[in-house]
Here is the input.
Amino acid sequence: MTEPVTSYRIAVMGGTGPQGKGLGYRFARQGHTVVLGSRSAEKAVPVAEEVTARLAGVEGAGTVSGASNAEACAEADVVVLAVPWDGHDDLVASLPLEGKTVVSCVNPLAFDKRGAHGQVINGGEGSAAESAQALAPEATVVGAFHNVSAVLLWGEEEYLDEDVLVVGDSVDAKGVAIELARSVSGRPGIDAGKLRLARQLEPFTAVLISINRKYKTHAGIRISGVDLGGE
Amino acid sequence: MTEPVTSYRIAVMGGTGPQGKGLGYRFARQGHTVVLGSRSAEKAVPVAEEVTARLAGVEGAGTVSGASNAEACAEADVVVLAVPWDGHDDLVASLPLEGKTVVSCVNPLAFDKRGAHGQVINGGEGSAAESAQALAPEATVVGAFHNVSAVLLWGEEEYLDEDVLVVGDSVDAKGVAIELARSVSGRPGIDAGKLRLARQLEPFTAVLISINRKYKTHAGIRISGVDLGGE
Here is the structure.
C-alpha cells in the first residue's frame, strides 16, 4: 500500500450497506479517514468496528468510525452517497452538504420477473446524481463507483479488475473521485464526461446484474484503449 | 483465421456508413457472406468493392456485395441495422424482415455544446432495438455491437480489445449475435440480458464518446469477471 497523495475525510452515507461498507473499507485501507454514516450512530458503530478489525495490520490505514448520517457529514471533506434510491431525496435534502464534494454511487434500479432494469428518472432526463445536485445546490456532485461490485469490494483481492467511471460538471470535484478510485482499482478513475451522463452509468448496473445472473459471477466494467499513465 | 462454425448470409442496413462497413468487413473476414445495403445499389456497390479489395488474400473470407437495403435483406438470414436513428423507423417498417434475425446496433444519440448524450425514447422506456421489434413483430430483434468503435473495426488489429454485449428476448437470436461477435473480438459476445436493456447499451456510447474526446482514443467496453470459455 502506498499512502495517497491527498488524505481525505470521507463520510459514507449508507455506510452500513454492502456498497457503503465495502467502499469505506477500501478508502480506509488506502489511508483515508472514514466515517460510516447510518440512520443512527448505534447502527453505524458496530459496522465501523467490523471494518476496523478487518484493517488490523494494514500499514498506513486510516481510521473508521460510525455516526449518524448528518454527524458523519458535518466533519467530512467528501460525502459519498451509497444509499438506496428509495428515500434518497429526503435524505439528501436533510444533510449539511454545503461546500462539500459529494460522490453519488446511487443506482435507481427496479426489479421484476424479467430481471433488473433502470428506473426512469424525470422522464428519462434525470439521474440520482442530478437529483442530488438539484437538492444540494451548494455542494458539488459527481457520479462514480456505480458499477463496482459490493462483493468484490469486501473481498480478498488487493484491487478490483474494474475501472471507475467518473462524471461531473466540476473538474476539481471529478479529480477527487478520480483520485479516490485508486483505493478500489489501483489506478485513477476515468473521466467519463458531464454529470448528466450519470443517466447512463447508474442503470448500466442492471446490465451487470443480468450478466452476473447468467454467468454466476461478479462482473465489472473495464474500459479498453485508455492510457491512465503510471499504471 | 478459423472458419466460423456457422456461416451466415448477413445483410447490413446502412452498410456504407462507418459502423456498417466496418462490421461487414469483419464478418466477411471471418467467412460470412455479406451484402452491404444502402438507399441505392449504386451507392452500395463501390463500398462493397472497397471492402472486397481489403479482403484480398484473406483465406476463407466470404464475399461482399452491394445492393439496395430491401434487396440486401431479402436473401439474408441475419439483418444488421447499422443506420442512423434519424429515419430508423421508416426504414425498418419498409424492410422485408419477416422470420429474420435482426441485430440492432443503432445508437440514438444527441449532441450539443456539452457533448454526446442519449436521446429519450418513449419517455425513457424504449430503445431503438425495442422500436425495431415493435415495427417488425415477425422478426426477432436483438441488440449488439452498439459500443464497438467504427475506427477500430476498419483498423489493422486482428481483433478488437472489446466485449460485444448482446441483449434480446430470444435465446436463439441472441446466440446468433453472440457467435457473430467472434468476428469482432475473437471471442463470443456476452449475454447481457433482455431486449429492454438495449436502453442501457445504446446511450452508453455517449459515455465512450466523452472518454474518446478526453483521452484522444477509441475506447471500448470490456467486462471483467466473465469466463467465456475457450478463449
Q: What stands out?
A: The CA atoms of residues 163 and 222 of chain A lie 5 Å apart. Chain A has a mean pLDDT of 95. Chain A has one domain: 9-215.
